[in-house]
Amino acid sequence: MRYVYGLTTALLLGGATATLVTGYPAGAQVAQNDESQMARVVPRDGAPESFADLTAQLQPAVVNIATRQRIEVQPNNPFAGTPFADLFGRRNQQQQQPTTREAQSLGSGFIISSDGYVVTNNHVVSPDNRATLEEITITMPDGTEYDADLVGADAASDLAVLKINSNRTFPFVKFGDSSKARPGDWVVAIGNPFGLGGTVTSGIVSAVYRNTGSGGAYDRYIQTDASINRGNSGGPLFDMQGNVIGINNAIFSPSGGSVGIGFAIPAEIAAPIVDQLRAGEEIERGFLGVSIQPVNDDLADSLGLPRNRGEFVQTVQSDGAADRAGIRAGDVVTKINGQDVTSDQTLSFLVANIKPGTRIPIELYRDGQRRTVTATVGKRPSENELRQQQMFDPDAEPDQAPEADSGAIEDKLGLQVLPMTAQIARQLGVGEDTTGLVIGAVDPNADAGRKGLQRGDIILTANYREIATIEDLEAIVADAERADREAVLLRIQRRGRPAQYVAVRLR
């Protein structure tokens, strides 16, 4: 479960200890999107008398997804941080090799073609960035199991496409038009919560485009009160015609369980991305290079702007698409390529869905005047690159360790580090030509923590040698160990202070 915002947003992934439970056998084994059949199943007016016929037709295409991953675990000193930390001796500890452990995940998915392509959430098949995916098992409602391959995954939209390794013909379902959904419409969710097998819940649509406040280009969900729980991730949300209008993704909950506020990725967002992943195409998204915030009531009043309109530009990346177009910090962007920027249709969402290289008009409000500039949309960096760019408020703790860090450096020095970039240099208040490694996190039980090293410090040199990459520092640490040295001399630059040398003991 991942905590994202507010009370709790829990990605609906089964735990590592969950056991796959086969659902009850289903009768229908053919594609289930014949409109004439659906018309007979569900009355056009009023609530359906039962969801049984609809479920019987759709459930054969909803599958359970189990994965097996291998995670490398570094050896730990149980006495670290105590006077007995050196009880076993540093050399004995160095001889310990990393061990591996097996992890599992459990989720849901649905088949979208007769030859066995399956859609699910990315976090179902990639639950831990430290893990190596080794096996994917698809279980049909009748209990039949198949191996599957990962065709493509997209972390930004949290979508993945799998392919079942079989030549048989599979039942399948199709995407519908989520834009036609309305608050109050009946919906049905089918999935695998808590490893119980095929489980069906019903409810209504609460909102078609719900912005949860968690940020990002795809913070735009169908909200429903249909019960959604752990293990429902990647399962379909159906309308009454049997079309997939959403992919169950997350819940808003103070306890981690369903409280009637569930979120599904709208089909109109998911379907084009799924098509690209299935075709093996790279997912390219537009990017302006700005950090933004919504226009709240106070900001709107201070600027004389309508409420619920536009987004305020806090910072502009140097030499990015917005910077080259003349957008400045303090501007309020009100339209992107002729489309209004609102809470339901954010700037990030609009720009992400524009092909990089496209020239677009951008309407904005500056110094009491409305202006229009033209920007050439850039290419959105990867999620890892974005995390690195955004992580360095030195006073803030990172939500998770930077993925560019080095396990060897963390083991030997108790530091998580990543290379310096121009963006991080600006955030740390140093010249963009500064070279070195940036400390992302410090183990308080390591000597580096006891010596006062902290997040946002820049390592300029090690043992008087300049460093620009993680490999540079790893090589220096390795040289020190071969020379039987028990410490490395680091030159540390901290914002607002002169650089100083700090000797950090290896562990």
From TrEMBL:
Its main location: periplasm. The keyword Flavoprotein does not apply. Pfam families: PDZ_2 (PF13180), Trypsin_2 (PF13365). Residues 1-18 form the signal peptide. It catalyses: Acts on substrates that are at least partially unfolded. The cleavage site P1 residue is normally between a pair of hydrophobic residues, such as Val-|-Val. Residues 378-405 are annotated as: Disordered. InterPro entries: PDZ, PDZ_sf, Pept_S1C_Do, Peptidase_S1_PA, Peptidase_S1C. One of its GO terms (molecular function) is hydrolase activity. It comes from the Bacteria. Keywords: Hydrolase, Periplasm, Protease, Repeat, Serine protease, Signal, Stress response. It is found in: Periplasm. Residues 284-350 form the PDZ domain. Its EC number is 3.4.21.107. It is an enzyme of class 3 (hydrolase). Belongs to the peptidase S1C family. NCBIfam families: degP_htrA_DO. This is Probable periplasmic serine endoprotease DegP-like. It comes from Altererythrobacter arenosus. The lineage of its organism: Bacteria, Pseudomonadati, Pseudomonadota, Alphaproteobacteria, Sphingomonadales.
